[in-house]
Amino acid sequence: MFADLIFVNGVIRTMADGIARAVAVRDGRIVAVGADTDVTPLIGESTEVVDLAGRALLPGFQDSHVHPVLAGLTMIRCDLHDARDADEALELIAAYAAAHPEQEWIGGGGWSMDWFPGGTPARGLLDAIVPDRPIHLINQDGHGAWVNTEALQMCGVDAETRDPQDGRIEREADGYPQGTLHEGAAHLVGDHLPEPTPDDLLRALRAGQERLHSVGVTAWQDAMVSPEVQRAYESAAAAGILTGRVVGALWWDRERGAEQIPELIERRRATGRFRTTSVKIMQDGVAENFTAAMTSSYLDGCGCGTGNHGLSFVDPIALRDHVTRLDAAGFQVHIHAVGDRAAREALDAFARAREVNGRNDNRHHIAHLQVVHPEDVPRFAALDITANMQPLWAAYEPAMNDLTIPFLGPERAEWQYPFGELHRTGAPLAAGSDWPVSSADPLLGIHVAVNRSIPGEPYDVFLPHQCLDVTTAFTAYTLGTARVNHLESDTGTIEVGKYADLVVLDRDPFTEPGRILEAAVVATYVEGRQVYSRLPDRKPVHTA
What's the rounded Cα separation, in Å, for the pair 196 and 186? Predict the structure, then answer.
């Protein structure tokens, strides 16, 4: 039988058996990998032949921690991700408000803490441009919101409002809310926004998926799946609109306890390419607003201890019980841990689950891992817990330099993003973007994982002993994430029998590690069907 699709004259990085020149695809799966002459007999009259002309072909990238529906909602609302500073953000907000006079609320997000003194934008900046409609804009990292006075007043948030257990209200000298709401405090206003409609969520999913395909991503784990987002995915899957392979991590409500587990079990199912087999628990916040859970206190601007150790959103003892029960029920558990105490609490919970339930194939993972105590690094391999990296953050940049390192202190700053040491001690690695918190582009993440610096930033290499080699970094973004998502038997490498989920790059990114980011995605395929293309000529080449 002839192939449906053939790639020739390329640099095929199989991520399994070295480098090949050609790949043949039939019925969505790879049927041959080798030299150009190996696939020539499979070319028929209807075979599409793509001459790679020296370009690279890799397994499609897979993102282990991403929020495409949230990102899509921001894209179709007031999107600030393209702004470069506070002034540009305010211009975008004013323009959006003027273009949408019919909207009762101005919602959206994408602002960055390093645009504002202390990382906390004030309500007065918004009042000056939109004084008569409530505004709620989510931080780029998803861990806070910027609101105006109208929003605070409409929601009854004032100087008498107490901080919630899982968040903090930034306040002015008289106690009145300043305009920045950290972590759970953002819900004091955010819960009053109009709920997105099913059509909104479906449009958001399609926008998010389109963006992921454009950077070569063919599979991902959505790290925050509510019942409404689950329905959007299932609708897209049933309609044939969902082209990515997706594991949905069902959101753990930290205001509740183990009584929600039966509900999560009821929501566990598969629809087409979408499966809800993971549960996401958010154990702490982020270091920039001092809510990441640390074993020792944050420092103040003078280098003295503050007594603030951050927040554990779930009681550590309860976390052990919840994880053990979820593990026994066959769920994978995906835990957000930024601080070293949160990482330790997560590892303790997984150790307890192993002790009670024994070994299994649930493939638990801990995401972010900004600060990991050196004593805990070897525990990942010992417990077979995947280190779910967001490598783009492992570099010197304004938020790191101004809002993080001074408040961690020199010793703890050296414990940040220990990807190299995790790899050397045998931890399984997966990689993701956390988009829209940061760029969805895997090549940018891989570049930073290898070089520990962001191109164009005038800073030194960040903790160079934690750099990964090129193959390890690409593997984390392909086979490593495929393993976390239980997809490695069908994806993650270019091998006969696997799905033809592939990405074409305009050059081989393995040859010059310092220039990985210069490579660009040319085309993306899922089961041999093109879902994104910049190829100049897509016409089939017919060869007898």
Answer: 17
- Contact between 224 and 233 under an 8 Å Cβ cutoff? The reply is no
Q: And the tokens for 274?
A: 């979408």
pLDDT tens digits, one per residue of 175-202: 999 999 998 898 899 888 888 999 999 9
d(CA 38, CA 12): 14
Q: Give the per-residue pLDDT at 539.
A: 39
Question: What DSSP letter does each residue of 495-525 carry, written as one string?
Answer: -TTSB--EEEESS-TTS-GGGGGG--EEEEE
The torsion angle over the Cα atoms of residues 342, 348, 351 and 352, rounded to 10 degrees, is -120
Tokens for 124?
Answer: 């007065």
pTM over the 0.85 mark:
yes
Q: Which residues contact 147 (CB under 8 A, 6 or more apart)?
A: 123, 126, 134, 135, 136, 137, 177, 179, 181, 189
Q: In Å, how far are 335, 483, 504 from 246, measured between CA atoms?
A: 18, 13, 21
Closest CA to 288 of 174, 142, 431, 422: 142
d(CA 244, CA 220): 7
- Interatomic CA distance for residues 191 and 538, integer angstroms: 47
DSSP string of 430-449, one letter each residue: EE---TTSS---HHHHHHHH
Residues in the chain: 544
User: What is the greatest pairwise CA distance in the chain?
Assistant: 81
Q: Which residues lie closer than 8 Å to 11 by C-beta, 6 or more apart? A: 19, 21, 52, 54, 55, 56, 57, 508
Terminal Cα-to-Cα distance of the chain (whole angstroms): 14
d(CA 218, CA 494): 14
CB-based contacts of 363, cutoff 8 Å, min separation 6: 332, 384, 386, 483, 484, 486
Question: Residue 544: what pLDDT?
Answer: 26
pLDDT at 94 over 70: yes
pLDDT digits (tens, 9 = 90+) for 277-314: 999 999 999 998 899 999 999 999 889 999 999 999 99
Do the Cβ atoms of 432 and 389 come closer than 8 Å? yes
Give whole-number Cα distances, 280 to 108, 326, 443, in Å: 23, 11, 26
On whether the CB atoms of residues 65 and 432 are closer than 8 A, the answer is yes
Residue 163 in 3-state DSSP? coil
How far, in Å, CA of 479 to CA of 331, rounded?
21
